[in-house]
Design a protein that fits this description.
Elements lengths: L1 H21 L6 H11 L18 H22 L7 H28 L4 H17 L3 H16 L5 H11 L4
Helix pairs in contact: 1-2, 3-4, 3-5, 6-7
């Protein structure tokens, strides 16, 4: 269900961006859209990327992954509650982008410290959170971690659906 929700929100973001560009906001809608993204690039994430996960216990990593999942979904859920042309929608988009970048930075630290989060270590919520971070990332980030996800799948440490969905998205490269 969350996958469908994520795909819906992604589609809604594209609709909002297109509607904003075509609305003629300001003198030139497309230039104003670029300006909007530049001005919102400094939006603060709702999670701190300066944490040192190397000092975290497994229980703290689980809690952190839980928080990352909450942050991942927070504004995506809000995107569904306002029209794509509403100014609040564009604010939600900027928060989604900031939170995605922050979550990716933190997941990179987690993976460097303990490898790909495994079911046997962080539980299903932790694995789901890590997968959502990768799912919402750019292709280069997905490609970087796909081999670890594939290995975790081979060892029954992530759900089949996570691996299969990402593999299909990345095909034919993988």
């Amino acid at each position: 269900m969350k996958l469908i929700s994520c795909l819906f929100c992604l589609g809604q973001m594209f609709v909002a961006v297109d509607a904003f560009a075509q609305s003629g906001a300001g003198s030139n809608g497309k230039k104003d859209l670029v300006g909007w993204f530049v001005s919102h690039e400094g939006t603060k994430a709702d999670i701190d990327t300066c944490i040192e996960v190397s000092e975290y216990s497994v229980a703290q990593i689980r809690h952190l992954l839980s928080k990352m999942e909450m942050v991942d979904q927070l504004y995506r859920d809000s995107l569904m509650s306002v029209p794509g042309t509403d100014q609040r929608y564009l604010g939600y988009v900027s928060k989604v982008i900031a939170n995605d970048k922050a979550n990716q930075a933190i997941l990179t630290k987690i993976i460097a410290n303990m490898g790909w989060p495994k079911l046997s270590v962080v539980g299903s919520q932790g694995v789901n959170a890590a997968w959502l971070v990768v799912w919402h990332a750019k292709r280069s980030y997905q490609d970087r971690y796909f081999p670890l996800i594939k290995k975790a799948h081979e060892n029954d440490e992530i759900p089949d659906a996570h691996f299969t969905t990402l593999r299909k998205k990345l095909a034919p490269a993988h």
